[in-house]
Amino acid sequence: MQIKYTLPVLAAAGFLFAAYMVVSSNKPIPVAPAVAAPASAPFKAFIAGAGIVEAKSRNIAIGTPLSGIVKTVAVKVGDKVKAGAPLFYLDDRDTRAELAVKLADLSKAQAGVNEAQASLKDTQSLSDLAEAVSDRRAISSEELLRRRNAVLINTTRLGSAKALVQQAEAALIATQTTLARLTVQASVDGEVLQVNIRPGEFAQAGALSTPLLVLGNMDQLHVRVDIDENDAWRFDKNSKAIAFLRGNRNFKTDLVLAYVEPYVVPKKSLTGDSTEQVDTRVLQALYSFDRKQLPVYVGQQMDVFIEAQDYTGDAASLL
Questions:
Q1: Are 245 and 296 in contact (CB under 8 A)?
Q2: Angle subtended by helix axes 141-181 and 93-132, to nearest 10
Q3: Tens of pLDDT, residues 151-195
Q4: Spatial separation of the C-alpha atoms in residues 269 and 117, rounded to whole Å
Q5: What pTM did the predictor assign?
Q6: Strands across the sheet with 202-203, in order?
Q7: Which residues, including other chains, have CB under 8 Å from residue 255's CB and lie 6 or more apart?
Q8: Angstrom distance (rounded) from CA 254 to CA 243
Q9: Rounded-to-integer distance, Cα 252 and Cα 254, Å
Q10: Phi first, then psi: what are they for 268, rounded to 5°?
């Protein structure tokens, strides 16, 4: 009798357990509270925009005009450099060997000029002696003509030798220019923000998705704010603007308008999601602030609020 009732009891217990699991799994997962409350606008009427911090000179992606193996990297992240300071060096052994050949060619060309000048001086002296003879019976007309032609020939050879010197000098300058281009220098006074090359790596010339080195003037930071095209007509250059640090609204600063780029561009994706579709165009305004006021880094995002007015009149009132 016990075996007879055991199987139904187990079946009923399994059914009840399955029902419990289904009911408990359907409960909504509680939403985790935000680490920090989002920033709120300090103005009654405002324009909200996402801002990204960049250097005063913008973030300069340093490249190389010539491809080659990196020999030495002269800077590291955080270094402050002056315009014209070397950033990294490319392998220049081939160019230096070519430079030695060009110097030898120049020396040879200069020796040719000296030789041509000596020949011209010699033939000019012989011609002057012949021209100084008063009695034409003492020298034949053929000899006189030959000496005159020799002077003309050596004059032409001297001009050709000087042209070879100019050509050798030009080739030398071209090689020296190539040698100088193998040293990549800072274009502005600034700070090294990123270094993506190391000695022994191949530096590719041209535009790269990942720059070899990033440089920027950090004396003052800018915030590049994307203003939606639907709000562009409400934007006033003289309005107040405040930026809040993304992630902590307690860090905020007043902004001063630096300039507005009067060209509406497609909005860039800032989420990193490859499936994000960008169909919005934005007006970009750049505001400046003292970097000492906020613990921010270049490339960090900020929440920006710009005071706006509620326009109720016609279009003429907006001008």
A1: yes
A2: 160
A3: 899 889 999 999 999 999 999 999 999 999 999 999 999 999 999
A4: 71
A5: 0.71
A6: 183-185, 86-90, 68-73, 202-203
A7: 223, 241, 242, 243, 287, 288, 289, 304
A8: 6
A9: 7
A10: -85, 145
